[in-house]
Amino acid sequence: MTAVETEAPGQAEAPQQGAQAQQATQAILNALATVVDPELDEPITDLGFVRSVSASETPWGMEAVVHLRLPTSFCSPNFAYLMASDAKDAISALAGMGTVVVELDDHHDSGLINAGLAADAGYRGTFRHEAEQDLEDLRRTFQRKAHTAAMERCLTGLLRADPSLPESAAGTVTLADLPEGGHKEALLRRRKVLGLPERPNAVVLVDHEGRGYAHDDVPLALRRARSTRISIDGNAHFCRGLLRTRYEGSGRDQAERHDGAEPADYHRLLPFHVKEN
Asked: What's the predicted TM-score (pTM) here?
């Protein structure tokens, strides 16, 4: 049996043996990159939530063992379970995968969540009477928020690029009016998830069911969308900072997030000294 293990997704320095296991490790990391923190709307690999990945060749197929970590021990259990469960599903779908073990480390519900994942008990089977909301309903709620934030980024970018454009004009902007780039691509991905039209003449400012807004309601709708976007961006940077504080060196595993970044976010690797009087 040969095995490959890496403690940091971005620093996969694997030994020269076990080529199949090395390929499996990379495939596992690619699969984990499709798993998104529902609240922060970002892949868990970019957030640094993947603590380690190992792949071993066994007679009954590849065995994968993944450890996840979160910014605090009291992060919401339903979010924690959702990410861990999605991670296991994404890896299990890989060809040639035999056994998949995903464990969440250092969380107050680690024992419960890890036991539920091992037994494939599902969300309600894991938390039983404490499961107040269906997990898919929760996922849908945050998919809608992610769409709202993506929509606001695109429209605010357009308004800033043309100061003569009145805010109320945002209600008639179509997908064809948006400049090509990462924000538009992100918006199209989120529209696809919600089943919203992606045709060029589709109006950008719509609710989660695709309904537009009356001319007089556009400024308020845009401000509400802005508050959603600021909340997501703020939480994302806050959680990133907490993870870096909790796990030394974890910042190396985080991808840069430019949306909502403050100047201090670009100086986290500088030495930090506290001067006491």
From this structure: 0.81
